[in-house]
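Suppose you are handed a protein chain with no further information: no name, no annotation, nothing but its sequence. What can you learn? This example shows the usual starting point.
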Amino acid sequence: MLLLDLQSIRTSREHIAREYQPEALEAKGDPFRVLAPVALAFDIQKDQDRFQLTGSVKTTVELACSRCLEPLTMDVDAPFDLRYQPRTALPGGGEREIEEDDFSTAYYEQDAIDLGQLMRERLYLALPMKPLCEENCRGLCSQC
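A reasonable first move is to predict its three-dimensional structure. Written in C-alpha cells, the prediction is:
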C-alpha cells in the first residue's frame, strides 16, 4: 500500500510531490494499464485531525477501444480536491440523504491516507465512458 503518514505532516500547509512506477498501481481486472510513471503532486492543509488535499495525478494509460478493441493510449491529468477526516467522524447508522460534500469527503484510518486508492480512483474517473481509437472507428465488423 502507498500510504501517507499523517503524523509526518508538521505544519498547517505542505506541498508533496511523488512519482510511482506503473507496477505500484497494477490490479487485476482494470480496464486500463498504466504505461508511464505516475506523478502525484498536491498541497495538503492540516486543520487538527482534518486534511484537505488539492492536486493532480498525471500519467499515461493504455485501454481498449470500445468499438474495435484495439489498444489506445491516453494521457491522464486528473485534478482532485478532497477533504479527509478520521473514520470515527463517519456519520453512522440509518439512512440519510447524500449531500454535495459527501462526494469530496473521504476517510482515513490509523493516521494514514491510502495514496494508492486516491490515485486509482482518480484514474478511473478520468477514463472516458466509451474510449475510441478514432472518432470514426467502424468497430469489429467494418461492414456493419
